[in-house]
Structures are given as C-alpha cells and as structure tokens.
C-alpha cells in the first residue's frame, strides 16, 4: 500500500493516501517529543467536500461515525505508542474532504494537522439534477446536471433521439443546458452524461414537455366507389400537448337550400374511430386518428371534420371530403 509521510513543525506525521472509492485507507498521526508519562488524546474529524458538513469520526479508539449498520471505520492506538491510526475499510466517495488529526497532551497543548483527502471515484449524477419538467411554448428553461466524482466530472448533454440541440450541436458540454424560446420541437428525452479519467460513471435522463396549442394535418380528400360493400378510412395527425381531446363530425343537409348541420360521430355499425401513438421517428406529441366508414353508400359522401381541444388553447379542426370515385 503506498504511503506518504508528512511532518509539520509541531511534529505530527500524517499520511493520508488517495485511493479509489471502495479501497482501504490507512491514515497515521504521530506526535513526537513527549515523555512516556504524558497522556495524549487524539480526535479525528472530516470536513466533507461534497456538502461542507464537519464530522468527528473518532476520539482515541472510540469510533463515532460511519459505524452503523456495517462498521467501516477503525481507530487504533498501540500501548505506549506515539502513533494513532484511522482506518477506512472501505473508503466511500463521500469521504473526500479535509481530514484532521488533533492531539492534546496533559498540559492541554493542542496541535493538529489537516490534509485534503482525495478520493478517486467514478462520476455519479446527483438527485438534485433537473427532473422531468413541463414548460409552455416560448418559455426559456435551464436544465441542470449535478455530478460528483474525482477528478471533477465532465458533463455532456444530448437528446436521446440523437437530434441536434437548439444550439445546433448533437452534444453540448457543461453542467447547465440553456434552452431559449422553446417550441414543440424541443420536446423529448434529454440525457446528461458524466465522465472523468476513471470512466463513464452514470447518466441522467429527463423528459422535457412543451405545452403548445393543437394543430392537425389531414389528407384533403378520399375517393371511393359507393354501394359495393367497401370500407374507407380517413387519417389525421393531431399534434398538441397536453394530448388533445379528439372528436369527429359529419356535415349533413337539413333538406333546405344552403342549410347544413353537423352530427357527432361515434363508434357504431357504421363508424369506427381509432387512435394510436406513432413511433417517435414519425412524430412526437402526436396522435394518429383514423375514422373508418363501413360499407360506403351514397349518403356517406360529403365533408367530415375532426376537432382537437386542449385546456387553455383554442380548438383546432381539420376537414376531409369523401367523394364518389369512378
């Protein structure tokens, strides 16, 4: 096991080493120049780098921290020995920080030595990073990825579908990803990847949802011969977030010149309404709505309307004309 002894003017020898997380660490603190009759006490403390909290780990041979539920600290002092040892087995990534050995003799002389304990560890993304988030069309938003590890991790962002970010790049470096004036095309799964010289420790994924008003793409018209016991279907792609409520209607004549009215369409022996979610490669935040007209007759010809409504937005509609073909 590598050891690096360091002596300061007070005569304390202190040898922290910098292993990887999960390995064993032995720190030694030695006080020289005291007579055998002097009584000495040692206190070990750690000011953690990750959260700034200060812990007293052990006093003499009594361990105060990290001893439950599974002991991983041991404080040792041999009889009539000037050496005190603090053993971490194993060392945790959170043990990185200022490790202090403080010694007091019978005359209450107080000497101490502090060394920064580097704990080499693979990156881990913290729970404080941005989670799934929902914003409105036109807003600006900052996605944050907090990661731990030593050496300090490098953070990269990318979209899960490998499409360019708003900056135009596939990947962007930095713990923060700023998106300005977002639109529906910014919706998707974002990945934060943390890496350092030790390796690729972890990644973080979150979904960015952008609220936007519904809009519809439909085929304009469908031709079909009548009275041949043939079905016909009409399709529309309905976009919007939150997912819009969809309904279908048919325009009918009231029997008077230029008098028209719409009737709602429901699933029946005449109509079948279906809705599916296409693959993300086709579209995101969209629904494929299909209306099937069963056994097309002359009376089925005409205009069909699809309506999409979403809370907080105006309704949107599309129109498809069924005409006689052949």
Attribute tags:
326 residues; mainly beta; Immunoglobulin-like; 8-stranded mixed β-sheet; 0% helix; 52% strand; disordered N terminus
Structure, described:
The chain is mainly beta. It has three domains: 3-119, Immunoglobulins (Immunoglobulin-like), CATH 2.60.40; 123-211, Immunoglobulins (Immunoglobulin-like), CATH 2.60.40.10; 219-322, Immunoglobulins (Immunoglobulin-like). It has no helices and 26 strands. The strands form six sheets. Strands 11, 14, 15, 17, 18, 20, 23 and 24 form an eight-stranded mixed beta sheet that branches. The radius of gyration is 35 Å and the shape is rod-shaped. The N and C termini lie far apart (89 Å).
Structural class: mainly beta
**Uncertain segments of ≥5 residues (pLDDT<50)?**
1-7
- The count of helical stretches stands at 0
Highest CATH level, the class of the largest domain: Mainly Beta
Coarse morphology: rod-shaped
Portion of residues within helices: under 10%
Question: Could you say what the CATH architecture of the largest domain is?
Answer: Sandwich
> Which strand-content bin applies to the residues?
over 45%
For the residues shown, what is the average pLDDT? 86
Number of strands: 26
CATH level-4 homologous superfamily of the largest domain = Immunoglobulins
CATH topology of the largest domain: Immunoglobulin-like
Q: Give the SSE string.
A: EEEEEEEEEEEEEEEEEEEEEEEEEE
Determine the N-to-C terminus distance: 89 Å
Domain module count: 3
Describe the biggest sheet?
8 strands, mixed
Radius of gyration: 35 Å
């Amino acid at each position: 096991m590598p050891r690096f002894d360091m002596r300061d003017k007070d005569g304390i020898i202190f040898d922290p080493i910098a292993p990887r997380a999960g390995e064993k660490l032995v720190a030694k603190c030695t006080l020289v120049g005291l007579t055998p009759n002097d009584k000495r006490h040692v206190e070990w403390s750690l000011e953690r780098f990750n959260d700034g909290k200060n812990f007293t780990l052990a006093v003499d041979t009594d361990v105060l921290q990290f001893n439950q539920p599974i002991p991983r600290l041991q404080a040792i002092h041999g009889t009539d020995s000037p050496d005190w040892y603090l053993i971490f087995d194993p060392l945790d990534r959170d043990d990185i920080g200022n490790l202090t050995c403080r010694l007091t003799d019978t005359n209450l002389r107080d000497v101490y030595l502090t060394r920064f304990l580097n704990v080499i560890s693979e990156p881990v993304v913290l729970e404080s990073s941005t989670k799934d988030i929902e914003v409105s069309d036109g807003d600006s938003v900052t996605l944050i990825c907090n990661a731990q590890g030593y050496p300090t991790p490098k953070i990269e962002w990318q979209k899960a579908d490998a499409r360019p970010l708003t900056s135009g790049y596939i990947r962007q470096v930095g713990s923060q990803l700023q998106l300005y004036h977002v639109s529906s095309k910014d919706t998707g799964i974002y990945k934060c990847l943390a890496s350092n010289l030790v390796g690729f420790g972890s990644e973080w994924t979150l979904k960015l949802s952008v609220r936007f008003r519904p809009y519809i793409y439909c085929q304009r018209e469908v031709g079909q011969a009548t009275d041949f016991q043939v079905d016909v279907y009409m399709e529309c792609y309905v976009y919007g977030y939150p997912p819009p409520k969809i309904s279908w209607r048919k325009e009918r004549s009231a029997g008077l010149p230029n008098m028209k009215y719409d009737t709602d369409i429901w699933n029946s022996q005449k109509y079948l309404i279906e809705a599916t979610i296409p693959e993300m490669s086709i579209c995101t935040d969209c629904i494929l709505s299909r209306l099937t007209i069963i056994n097309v007759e002359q009376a089925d010809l005409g205009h069909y309307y699809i309506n999409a409504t979403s809370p907080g937005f105006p309704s949107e509609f599309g129109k498809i004309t069924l005409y006689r073909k052949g």
